[in-house]
Amino acid sequence: MSDPRRRVYLDWNATTPLHPKAREAMLPFLADPDLFGNPSSVHWYGRRVRKAVEEARAAVARLVGARDPWEIVFTSGASEAANHVIRGVVRAYRDKGDHLVASAVEHAAVKAPCGALAAEGVRTTYVPVDATGLVDPAAMEAACEDRTILVNVMHANNETGTVQPVAEVARRARTLGLMVHSDAAQTAGKIPIHAPALDVDFLSGSAHKFGGPKGAGFLYVREGRRLAPLIEGGSHERGRRAGTENVPGIIGMGAAALAALEEMEAVAKQETGLRDRLWEGIHRHVPGARLNGSVEHRLPNTLSISFDGVDWEGLIIALDLEGVAVSTGSACKAGAVEPSDVLKAMGIPPELARGTARFSLGRGTNEADIDYVLEVLPGVIARLRRAPTRAARATG
Known about the structure:
The protein is α/β, with parallel strands linked by helices.
């Protein structure tokens, strides 16, 4: 172990630490007895809170380029938002169709509800991606049928960072009269988003991906689009999502959204430089390392790297012992023995996919962090590659 006191967090795609501005904005709504009112109440206790909630809605609307703040529906996160879209569209437009289209690398928050709806006769066609994880817009269009009602294409992949051609997919879908949903959990607050320019009907995201609190998220619903509620029981969110709002979470998300807009360009520039420095160092000093995903179309902060002759579990544990926190890809796949669906869809051999780690950077990552990882990683990989040989000798 090189330095047990050193701690490097390179799992920002899973959870971004709470932004100081989000923390500052949330605290009064957690501690001040004058700010505990229900935002749906008409008395002054409620109105004060309602004003803050609507200011947060406007901030999130700015983050994704919504034309009207009321195109934003508050949720518990991107998973709820994606479920709301898929199940809500099927319920609202069942008279028009029963077929969905999605890229093969969608998050489980999209794939799971699509799969569950099969029991109700709803079919889903998954469109393959190329070796870099990019989907072909023409192939997405070709997968659509007369009974298709929704096309799903994520803005950027959570494991590889590959940014999809959402606008082109949406343009083609629009010619067929179809609606489009894009999972923007990994892009909101990291790269510029303008929902009208992307021409999507629905956009989902989570606060904790861009410095807001866990348990808060949003769904952009283009004006004029019908969507059956996922959660029923009240008239909250203009009847689109019942339940008293998570006020501190929403306030924190709004503050994080404004901070992201202010810092995005500078942070992305810093992340890109550090990301490239990390990959160049790994490529130079670790033989057999492979970069996954698109080199041209990718997030500024994400690296998916496969190491031959290494098992992911041993890699993650060994790096953790050195104080380096990375992930195997999607945190939602933690504990899975099989390679991720994303790597499978990209055609990466199973033996290589099983040795894959995701390094994701954030606003707090610095050069010293990268240098430390480059100091310990070559030795970790070398030890792991020798381990099977030692085990074979011991049992031979």
